[in-house]
Amino acid sequence: MAYLEMDNVSIGFGPPSNRTEVLTDVNLSVEENEFVAVIGFSGSGKSTLMSLLAGLQRPDKGEVRLHGSVIEEPGPRLGIMFQNYSLLPWLSVFGNIELAVKQVFPKFTASELKKHVEHYVEMVSLTPALEKKPHELSGGMRQRVSLARTLAMKPEVLLLDEPLSALDALTRAVLQDEIIRIWEEDKRTVVMITNDVDEATLMADRIVPLTIGPSATLAQEFPVTMERPRDRANLNKNPEFMKLKNSVTRFMVGMNKESKELRVDNTIQMPDIKPYDFMPPTRTSVVVK
Ligand SMILES: Nc1ncnc2c1ncn2[C@@H]1O[C@H](COP(=O)(O)OP(=O)(O)OP(=O)(O)O)[C@@H](O)[C@H]1O
């Protein structure tokens, strides 16, 4: 039995007359302490897949299970970090993280709570912004608060939906290393969505592409067997990295091309007629008796 499983999961939205099937027959088995990266194109259903794993949405068909039990609702064992940060605007950086930590660790004393929150704020290099409100922060800073909040709750499973997409390359590299360090030290299980093949190859044990929707599903997976720790500075000289990166990229590009070729041409051919019935009457056509 896998630790975290999606078993023939399908989900769609909308009424029967105008329904979009977003995910169809998705199967995913994640082992405990594994790091899985899901990559896919925009709009293919990646966030929907994350919401299903987090228990925020229930599938129309199939089951999502943690330790063999069906996930029916969100809970502290599953920590999700959303793409859109979802911070409370009236609370400071400290307040946003504190609120989440209090819910998971209600027995923390005031000083334990403060120390814990400050530790995670420090980890994402936001100590100088501790008392700032979300509107005073850049997109990248908000993303870091959101990451710190998820990590501070110490969930068994980290569900990261494009956690680093709003960051500049340098900050992104620092936080990639930080996520790997936390994953290795605390022995968490991670499912991370990314559209960056380099990032997936650097961080994950396995890369699973999501096909292009509608009715997207998980495609042939790519195991990442490179030894850890992975040397970021020399990755582009590592033949294993380059080979895997090229294979994944080729697969994604091929899938995109195939989907464009298969796309039905919905253009309606209009008959070649002139709508003269709607023309205003000309002077000569008006007959006065
Ligand atoms: N609650 C909903 N109601 C109706 N349609 C939805 C809902 N949630 C998602 N969808 C549709 O499902 C499809 C997939 O959306 P989703 O956000 O999962 O994609 P994504 O791969 O995460 O996209 P992006 O990378 O652009 O964030 C889209 O067509 C979206 O409009």
UniProtKB/TrEMBL annotation:
This is ABC transporter ATP-binding protein. The lineage of its organism: Bacteria, Pseudomonadati, Verrucomicrobiota, Opitutia, Puniceicoccales. Keywords: ATP-binding, Nucleotide-binding, Transport. Pfam families: ABC_tran. CDD domains: ABC_NrtD_SsuB_transporters (cd03293). One of its GO terms (molecular function) is ATP hydrolysis activity. It comes from Pelagicoccus mobilis. It comes from the Bacteria. The keyword ATP-binding applies. Residues 4-237 form the ABC transporter domain. Coiled coil: none annotated. InterPro entries: AAA+_ATPase, ABC_transporter-like_ATP-bd, ABC_transporter-like_CS, ABC_transporter_ATP-bind, P-loop_NTPase. Signal peptide: none annotated.
